[in-house]
Amino acid sequence: MKIKKAVIPVAGHGTRLLPATKSQPKEMLPVGRKPVVQYVVEEIEGAGLKQILFVTGRKKRSIEDHFDKDVNLLKELHQSGKSSIIQEMKYQELNVSFYYVRQSEQKGLADAVSLARDLMENESFVCALGDSIIGGSRPSHNLLKRMMDFHLKNNAACTLAIERIPREEVFRYGVVQVGKELEKGVFTMEGLVEKPNIEEAPSDLAIAARYVFSPAIFEAIDLTIPDKGGELQLTDSIGLLIKKGAPVFAVLLNQNEHRYDIGNYESYFRAFVDFALQDEKYGHTLRHYLSRKL
């Protein structure tokens, strides 16, 4: 069965990016000439998915407005002859249907995913975190295609993306323990832990903000025990699938693929610079400016 649907959780408060996120979602912060979440939506659409559910929260209305076609704005741009700007608005023509559900209470990522249960209708689906961009020299949707193909081929309960990170950064991410390499860059999963201490981390492989789930994830979420902060961690739910013996796999990002986590200012600044330097229209002027500045 072809995978057609995706869920993008965007309900987080973005407190590590205050004050920039006081009145706007972190997913709407610009990276180059696009907001973060637009890259995620274009990645999903490029992988062939047709329906996207945003799990939103307070102060997230601008995400819905961004993907809503603004007929009056387009009319004004046509009348003023601003054809180049009209081209930049082509993302409004994406062949995707958008749906929205609100996570009124911050109860964790697993709780956010559980809100997609009704739309998914017993089908496998993609989950892509709205504050993380997959960038690199190849099209970003290649990763999702590899994940979906392997997931369906092997009747998996969960297939997640992983990346190798510096050991000193493991405390920021969900870190996995992999088993046998089934094919190049694809592993069985033996365990995972959310934001471990450096000395307790099972590896230097972190979950890279992309997942493919079967409906089995919803039963696992129902059985997940809240953490000390009262939140349901998605890593705990996936861990239950592994303990149950369900097929769970990890797909390693290629050398030319990179996850940009827009979760703190250091990683946000890096993402903005990298994407701005790659910009077809303005990248060369920025490179000249930086070379003079440095």
Describe the overall structure.
This protein has 11 helices and 13 strands. The protein has 294 residues and is of the alpha/beta class. Helix content is 34%, strand content 26%. The strands form 3 sheets. Strands 5-4-1-6-11-8-12-10-9 form a 9-stranded mixed beta sheet. It is globular. The protein has one domain (5-293): Alpha-Beta Complex (Spore Coat Polysaccharide Biosynthesis Protein SpsA, Chain A), CATH 3.90.550.10.
Compact overview of the structure:
By secondary structure, the protein is of the alpha/beta class. The chain has a single domain (5-293), classed as Spore Coat Polysaccharide Biosynthesis Protein SpsA, Chain A (Alpha-Beta Complex), CATH 3.90.550. It is built from eleven helices and 13 strands.
* Count of DSSP-assigned helices: 11
The number of strands is 13
State the strand order across the main sheet: 5-4-1-6-11-8-12-10-9
CATH superfamily: Spore Coat Polysaccharide Biosynthesis Protein SpsA, Chain A
Beta-strand level of the residues, as a percent range?
A: 25-35%
Q: Approximately how much helix is present in the residues? A: 25-40%
Tell me the major beta sheet. 9 strands, mixed
User: What is the first-to-last residue Cα distance?
Assistant: 53 Å
CATH topology: Spore Coat Polysaccharide Biosynthesis Protein SpsA, Chain A
pLDDT averaged over residues: 91
The rough form would be described as globular
Q: Structural class given helices, strands, pairing?
A: alpha/beta
CATH architecture heading:
Alpha-Beta Complex
